[in-house]
Amino acid sequence: MIHAKQQAYKLAVLKGIASFSGMWVYKDDHTDVRVLGAIAKALPGLVSLKSVEKFIQEKLKNDLKVTSARVAFEKLSSLNVQPGVGSPEEPFHFDLPGWSTLRAGVSINGLTDRGGAYADPVTGQVGGFRPSRNDKFKKYTTRTMRPVVNFATCTKCTLCWLNCPDASFDVTPDGTYDANLEACCGCGICEAVCPVPNCITMVSEAAFKDNASQWEAYRKDKAGYEVWLKTVIASAGERSHGFRYRGQYKEQIPAALEMAKG
């Protein structure tokens, strides 16, 4: 799935359960120390395994994490990737300026306004608030899961909007909160802080094909959206990565370590 490169390179492989969301929200799934152990194996001239173990013992004071780093070091594998091998899809395309229009230095235009109210797609009523966002900053490209929102059960408590680290939620004209999926990185904090059971559910990116507004779909066809919501959550099956509740990582650590040994 890695986009093909014009030059050969070596790919280091560290087996494990994908857990981008878990790493940054609950931080105890050992992804951090396993990556450190892998770096020590892949780049011994940069850092040694002994140094990694000393850091974990002195700073993190966790013997199990020392073991995780050591297992990752021992089990890391690599393969040589030849030029042209991989996905042929072009990930991005930019129309570069010519020498006569290039500005001095490397820069991205700042936002010219802070955003504002916008229209309901059904009634035309203007309200809420949608902040301006830089169109060059696409955090969704690294997302492995996205939030899906049940607007019918939203109590408008504001917690998802207040706690989102990337200000990814738009305040809709009817006062609910719509995840702007161009800005969302999929960290799962909104799901974790939402006080209403199943109002926000993180679902694998594999279930989606675009970043369309969920709120607009809900406003245009509430009954259809309810059916879609149940279908997309059910079709995702058992969660493969990230965490649904605090403490879940403790249940998954043994399985993750067994996978790392495989």
Describe this structure in words.
It contains nine helices and eight strands. The chain is α+β, with helices and mostly antiparallel strands. A hairpin with a 6-residue loop joins β3 and β4. α2 packs antiparallel against α3, α3 runs antiparallel to α4 and α7 packs across α8. The protein is globular, with a radius of gyration of 22 Å. The protein starts with 8 loop residues before the first strand and ends with a helix. The mean pLDDT is 86.
Top-tier CATH class of the largest domain:
Alpha Beta
% residues in beta strands: 5-15%
Shape by Cα distribution: globular
Biggest sheet strand order reads: 1-2
* Series of H and E elements: EHHHHEEEEHEEHEHHH
Task: Specify the helix fraction band.
Answer: 25-40%
N/C terminus separation: 22 Å
Compute the number of helices: 9
Give the averaged pLDDT, no decimals: 86
